Amino acid sequence: MPSSLIFDMDGTLFQTNKILELALDETFTYLTSLKEWSNETPLQKYREIMGVPLPVVWETLLPTHSNEIRQRANEFFHDKLIANINHGNGALYPHVREVFDYLKETGSSIFIASNGQIEYLNAIVNYYNFDVWVTETFSIQQIQTQNKADLVNFILNKYNIEHAAVVGDRLSDIHAAKSNGLMAIGCRFDFSQEDELAQADAIIDDLLELRTLISDKMNTEHERGSWK
Hints:
The chain is α/β, with parallel strands linked by helices. The chain contains 10 helices and 6 strands. Strands 3-2-1-4-5-6 form a 6-stranded parallel beta sheet, with helices on both faces. Strand 2, helix 6 (118-127) and strand 3 form a beta-alpha-beta unit. The chain is elongated, with a radius of gyration of 18 Å. The mean pLDDT is 92.
């Protein structure tokens, strides 16, 4: 059976930092206009928790605010992110397309598993024509537990996948791989943290490194009859 690669989106394929600061500033300016905020935009705090589901983001950034205000902030932020994507303000990480081409040529299936919301993910997929390579994109919204390990498990079961690796920049991606008995490949990119990456099976600094890493891993494990 061909191998499968399950990629995180933000901070792994898509350079969220290109649109993050602008959208977050706009959101907290909006909250200020509602007299619900009076400090600077907590950008660094958001960077620290990047990768968690959005409900957790707003519980962290607005710990003393009501759920109603958190929801309004989330909706505004979400709309601004999508607008920036559609205006071309975002960017993919270097070599995404080359790596996707390579994986497809070698018969590997490509999936995306993200904590991002469905509409946001669709905006990225559509803008960058990911459907050319990606079999399906999955959002944490599709899983009641809001747990990425469960999301990856859902993908494995839906497509009857036995041999796979998870590629991502944060601990949630690494845990999702380990919980499902898969290889965890950590990306040392914008939002990654060294203590989290230390728990991965392999670490890359550029997506191009996946070509050699996956090829070597497949050759070794296929000799033993298993690639996990």
